[in-house]
Amino acid sequence: xxxxxxxxxxxxxxxxxxxxxxxxxxxxxxxxxxxxxxxxxxxxxxxxxxxxxxxxxxxxxxxxxxxxxxxxxxxxxxxxxxxxxxxxxxxxxxxxxxxxxxxxxxxxxxxx
Amino acid sequence: xxxxxxxxxxxxxxxxxxxxxxxxxxxxxxxxxxxxxxxxxxxxxxxxxxxxxxxxxxxxxxxxxxxxxxxxxxxxxxxxxxxxxxxxxxxxxxxxxxxxxxxxxxxxxxxxxxxxxxxxxxxxxxxxxxxxxxxxxxxxxxxxxxxxxxxxxxxxxxxxxxxxxxxxxxxxxxxxxxxxxxxxxxxxxxxxxxxxxxxxxxxxxxxxxxxxxxxxxxxxxxxxxxxxxxxxxxxxxxxxxxxxxxxxxxxxxxxxxxxxxxxxxxxxxxxxxxxxxxxxxxxxxxxxxxxxxxxxxxxxxxxxxxxxxxxxxxxxxxxxxxxxxxxxxxxxxxxxxxxxxxxxxxxxxxxxxxxxxxxxxxxxxxxxxxxxxxxxxxxxxxxxxxxxxxxxxxxxxxxxxxxxxxxxxxxxxxxxxxxxxxxxxxxxxxxxxxxxxxxxxxxxxxxxxxxxxxxxxxxxxxxxxxxxxxxxxxxxxxxxxxxxxxxxxxxxxxxxxxxxxxxxxxxxxxxxxxxxxxxxxxxxxxxxxxxxxxxxxxxxxxxxxxxxxxxxxxxxxxxxxxxxxxxxxxxxxxxxxxxxxxxxxxxxxxxxxxxxxxxxxxxxxxxxxxxxxxxxxxxxxxxxxxxxxxxxxxxxxxxxxxxxxxxxxxxxxxxxxxxxxxxxxxxxxxxxxxxxxxxxxxxxxxxxxxxxxxxxxxxxxxxxxxxxxxxxxxxxxxxxxxxxxxxxxxxxxxxxxxxxxxxxxxxxxxxxxxxxxxxxxxxxxxxxxxxxxxxxxxxxxxxxxxxxxxxxxxxxxxxxxxxxxxxxxxxxxxxxxxxxxxxxxxxxxxxxxxxxxxxxxxxxxxxxxxxxxxxxxxxxxxxxxxxxxxxxxxxxxxxxxxxxxxxxxxx
Lengths: 112, 891
Hints:
The complex is a heterodimer.
Chain A: H1 8-20, H2 26-37, H3 43-55, E1 59-64, E2 75-80, H4 82-99, H5 103-109
Antiparallel strand pairs in A: 1-2
Chain B: H1 10-19, H2 28-43, H3 45-69, H4 79-96, H5 99-127, E1 138-143, E2 154-155, H6 156-165, E3 170-184, E4 189-197, H7 201-205, E5 211-212, E6 228-231, H8 233-239, E7 250-253, E8 256-263, E9 279-282, H9 286-290, E10 300-308, H10 314-331, H11 333-336, E11 341-345, H12 353-391, H13 393-401, H14 406-441, H15 458-484, H16 488-493, H17 503-539, E12 549-554, H18 566-578, E13 583-589, E14 600-603, E15 617-624, H19 628-631, E16 636-639, E17 653-657, H20 658-664, E18 673-674, E19 682-688, E20 703-707, E21 717-722, H21 726-740, E22 746-751, H22 752-795, H23 797-805, H24 810-843, H25 855-881, H26 885-890
Helix pairs in contact in B: 1-3, 2-3, 5-12, 5-14, 5-15, 12-15, 12-17, 12-22, 14-15, 17-22, 17-24, 17-25, 18-21, 22-24, 22-25, 24-25
């Protein structure tokens, strides 16, 4: 995976991490993705994606106990780095640019 | 009380822990378990377990894909990852110091390759089985001959009797004999090797022809009938260009048309190793092909093979055969009296029981020699590994302090050694292939075409792999154990200068060098013995003319000459040769001394009897022209020469050798008579000087000379001597004979030197091999010695520095180093000589004119070792004196 293009799945994982703010760890990301996208997600795939994102410098992690249980078992929490955010903005720009002007087609398909 | 939450299966959990990164081992598995618990609640325990398994597998698959693609990931427990790292680490080491690995791989290749080559040869000649059905059921049937030799050939009538009466013990009996055949392709007759076989030959062996068929039952019934032929696959594809219409076509063999009925499968090369027939004909055609009477019970040239009937053992078959021999002897006392048949499992016979007796010791000798070379190689590699191990002790100690197990470290070390031995083994296969091809080019000079196809097949590869494994352990185990043993703390505390390493290491290295020198000494003594044996053999006087001459062996029967024309044709040929100005003399004989094979017949000698039932004595004989004695320079010491009988009127006169007279008629052989089962008694008219008959090393052998013409022979050797070179004479003689008789077929046409080379072939080959291998071993030992002496000098460099600074002369320092080296050579030489001395008697059987404990060799070889040792020690000694005392003391 080069720094140029984020794969779709990595994309989703990074977005989910962004959504979860401080609480993004592998299990919560899995749940978030499943909830929002409606598909079942493999935690193993999420784990690999998180590690890759960190290796590429698009996310960073830290070990800390969960916010609501300061004495509990530590988890590894992830957040996007500025580079990661930049990638997300770029991707979003590309996507929206391509989608621009296509709303009527999509709306028509939905029978609106 | 809340029930504890269900956990995923422990095995899977542990597996998962191995698959994640080390820093994640405490976090991700727990997080995954969270989701697992969700699933247990939502979908049930079993489905959750299955889901967990899928997660573990997916993680494993993704990890594998990751590590094989990008190498940027830091290594986890992936085994392939670690291996890759090891290999790259080794590669870096090799690039930095390429000399040692290169030398090690090369010497391992030589050591392993020699073993592979010898094994491949032995496998092909002695161990491999022909591609027949159920070879364990096949047996060879032999009959004893008039000399009492138990494993001799059958006559056709005897074969038929055995085949007919053995239904209880044998499922089937087949016979085969070698024949020479000629075909005409482009005018000139081509000599081929063929086999005349019983009609059930292919069927009994379970050999399916590649095209057409084998022989049909009854095709061998009537002598002279059944002109059909099965071709060998090689002959068909090479000589007949793989003609697809071959079946049904006609092939002229010995000027008669034969119908081709089939082509043998590609892998079937007959039953005798190295003798590959070009074609097979029914045994009934033997009479036509060989001009012999097939029905004669006394004419024995058939080999017999049989398949045991179900439930019959070899022992039972053997018993039956012996009983049946008695029956045959009663029925036909004049030919079968005193002859016993025996049965031997085909798997126990490599070539022939008599030949095997000679081959087996040779095989063991060869294996022993190459085994020694391998031992020297491994010792060499081991001693270098030891010095490397010394250097790496600190690193090993650190690893052990950090918790690495000794077994793992030993394995790691052996893995490094294995990369050397495996590389050596791979190279060895190439070397073996090349040296086998080279060796097979040296065909012994005999009239039969030896055809050995030595392949590096499965068993040879397996053998090579095993030898490589042995070499890895032999070379690597001791250094591995030495480098990983010892007290870890002590190792870490020890200074890292070369002197800090122990003296135990140097003693072991010294021991290795001594053993290398000893082993090389043994090989070199063997080489020396064989070289001296070769020289002795070369200088033995065979008792006949060995100068410039051509030896030609026409076969009149194959050349289309009828028996009644024969004698006139011989005279014609002799005249044709004598008419050439370059040729001084022509001799004829049917058994030129020191040739392939020999012939002997039973004689009734008055006053002497053997243990045979008829009391007859077996004596070597030859039929010769009257000119033989003059041309071959064999003196008649008493009496006179015989006259060649013209048109069958022979008076029974013979000439005997001096040894014959001394043994049987010590009071004088002149005028004495003997019987040889022929119609008339034989009278001795002359005594000739002895010649070597069968081997160069034999003591004088009794021999009887018959005059040419006493009985018609259709194949005789013509010796044409002259002043010019033998090669020239050969060309002239061949042309003269072909001019006189176009279409003349020769079994052989060679120079006298080539004829004599047959006797010298074995000692020459042995001397060459042993010298080459001994030289290799010595070279390796010298390298080993050089390395050890240099290493010792480096270790003592501090001491040398002190000595030099205290005023010692450089020559003193040099002497110190050299003495150390020489001491090792002396020790090795003494051990080597002792072993050679003890083993000397084993070699005596192979040597000619030289004892197994030959003094000259036992003095010369140590001399050679001393010189080698001095050279190997001198070079490091010189370097030692160039040490700067100040530098060394400062370090």
